[in-house]
Amino acid sequence: MRYTLLDESLYFPPVHYADEHGILAFGGDLSVERLLLAYQSGIFPWYSEEDPTIMWWAPDPRFVLYPTQLRVSKSMRQVLRKGLFEVTFDQRFKEVMIACQQIKRTGQQGTWITEDMLEGYCQLHAQGFAHSVEVWQQGQLVGGLYGVSLGHCFFGESMFSKASNASKAGFITMVQKLQLLGIKLIDCQVYTQHLESLGAEEIPRDEYMAQLKQHLQNPTHQGNWQTLLASLKDNS
After folding, report:
1. So what's the pLDDT on residue 132?
2. What's this model's pTM, rounded to 2 decimal places?
């Protein structure tokens, strides 16, 4: 297998060039322009702090969630009704990323959220493309997630939880709110049992690419989600 080594030019090879693991290319940078091109092309970065070479992925199949197919268990409905958590949007983006970076995960040593990743996505956030969900309990940040939004798509990157059901509460609330912004496709990238329980499913990469192209034709809700959602509420 011959992989593409990226240089300073803004280019990615077609996703069908990826190997059986989903690895497509190496190198390049994490500039705002390249990250946006990557997501628009069905590609995302994922690499470890032990090896600083950026790796770009386009796995087949792709793990996605359609907001209308969200599954909320009876127990989670009870958790949400009790108001155990407060959920906010785009209030602590960098803190959420750092928490995702530092959380200990079973079977994983180190983190793939490098300092370069942190800087790159904070720049995306500053330009209104990257977003965070914060989950609070008694004034403490106990869960959250972040990702990138383009067109009518949301590309989830990572989540963390320091309290039982915190990340689920944040994810469910986010999916429900994103429907108000017209989001049709949530890219979960690769399979996890956690997200499968919430309704995510695997689809062929070709199908994902066709849906991505369709939903990217819609305008992007660029800006602070909390403000955008509040404006929708005020206009309703």
Report:
1. 98
2. 0.94
